[in-house]
Amino acid sequence: MFQVQDIKVDPDSRRAWRGDDEIVLSRKEFDLVLALISRAGDIVTRDELMRDVWHTTFWTSSKTIDVHLGWVRRKLGDDSRRPHLITTIRGKGLRFEKGDGGRRADGH
To answer: Domain 2-96: which topology?
Structure first.
């Protein structure tokens, strides 16, 4: 189980929550969130995401990641103009932000 900010992801059951509310994600959306949250605080390159989520080493479409990221941000309640969960590091990749020192949503 990964928990960062108020997002929880269970890779075994392939379920995700924001606080106590379950978030319904498609297979690729879940894989994208998992790839990012499992490395929270680190920059994950677009090449790594294409390899790990789409299982390809070439760009099937330059917009594939951006489109899925838009859907994920909406479902997680992350403002694309001022994201606090997943930020784009221009020219490098994406990062799932740890937030306030990695404190869990339940205060522990």
So the answer is: Arc Repressor Mutant, subunit A (1.10.10)
